[in-house]
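Response to reviewer comment R2.3. The reviewers asked that we include at least one raw input/output pair. We reproduce the pair for Glutaredoxin domain-containing protein here without editing.
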Amino acid sequence: MQRLRRRCSNDVVRLDLATPPNSSSSSSSSLSIDGAESTETRIQRLISEHPVIIFSRSSCCMCHVMKKLLATIGVHPTVIELDDHEISALPPASEDGSSSSSSSLAPAVFIGGACVGGLESLVALHLSGHLVPKLVEVGVLALSPGYDNNNPIISS
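Raw output as returned:
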């Protein structure tokens, strides 16, 4: 099993999903890769292993807004930065696979293994009152007493 090369800053993990030649690692981690594993398989595995994960490009302002929205609610997602050639390996946002292009795939947030979509979809899910229950359902958030599902804006 080979370990991904990664760089951490501002709670973002930069993964190089390409298998480095002649490198090995004795430790096992959810951020490790098997040399025989394809980029698509690695991405699918990461999605299944993390209840809330955002795939983004480096320095993506929309990703920053997604992280801030989720942090305001009390959730801190795993954020993976992908290179342009890795973005195309993301699963499509819609069930029928009708994504317009690979550039429209990033940033993409997955909750409980399901693709929510980009920033617009995440905000729409929040404003409709369905985001918090979805986060509770996947176990990353507990509802506080007195939470009003009809008023999705959380106040302190």
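The radius of gyration is 16 Å. DSSP finds five helices and eight strands in the chain. Further pairs are available on request from the corresponding author.
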